[in-house]
Amino acid sequence: MPVELYGMSASAPCRIVAMTLEVLEVPYEYKTIDLMAGDQMKPEYLKINPQHNIPTLVDGDFAMNESRAIATYLANAYGKDSKLYPVDPKVRAVVDQRLYFDMGVFYKAIGDIIYPKMFEGKDPESGAKDKLKEVLGWVNDMIKKSGYAAGTDSLTLADLAFIASFSTLVETGSFDVSGFAELNAWFEKVKGEIKNYEKANGAGATAMGQWYKSKL
Ligand SMILES: N[C@@H](CCC(=O)N[C@@H](CS)C(=O)NCC(=O)O)C(=O)O
Fold this sequence. Notes:
Blueprint: E1 3-7, H1 12-24, E2 28-32, H2 43-48, E3 56-59, E4 62-65, H3 67-78, H4 89-120, H5 128-144, H6 157-172, H7 181-191, H8 197-214
Parallel strand pairs: 1-2
Antiparallel strand pairs: 1-3, 3-4
Helix pairs in contact: 1-3, 1-6, 1-8, 4-5, 4-6, 5-7, 6-8
The structure holds glutathione.
GO molecular function: glutathione transferase activity
Pfam family, one: GST_C_3
Domain GST C-terminal: 88-216
């Protein structure tokens, strides 16, 4: 039975998981959970994810949420020799650092720019743009070292998490990212290294961008 990914393509966390499945070439079935329709609160979904968020992964009798933890599970379970989640403790630690940073800092700073408008019809709080600029500078510096997010010589889960976040920001057009040269070069390069990029991330990021723009 193929693994099942419950989610929505507009959701950046869901796109991290979809890209991981594509890069690892794991067959999967995409089960759409439409947040606008309230699918996440249905009893059958709450059984597999009482936290009622997306994504959720179901692999046989095993179910879990939290996108970046799902990505590391998939790499451990299906990509044992893959460079996507390196086994060297220090290299893996840097990948993990990037994943936590993506959730708590990078995507957070992006959300602080786009979510107030999308969900509350408000402008971002003062200081949010300066914070995002600082965070983008850090991300640019991380990438500068080797052209990949974790300083490796090839794609890792850190790149998948960062591209889900960054593509969302770019598609909203809510922030001028042109000053971050290495980040933009990385974005163009890495898109071409992710199998079925458009299906797994590009289309969903565009949808998120259109949704944001519809609220302006
Ligand atoms: N840290 C979580 C965040 C998941 C998340 O916030 N998902 C949002 C959509 S992007 C959601 O499901 N919201 C609906 C809800 O929480 O009920 C992850 O990375 O998986």
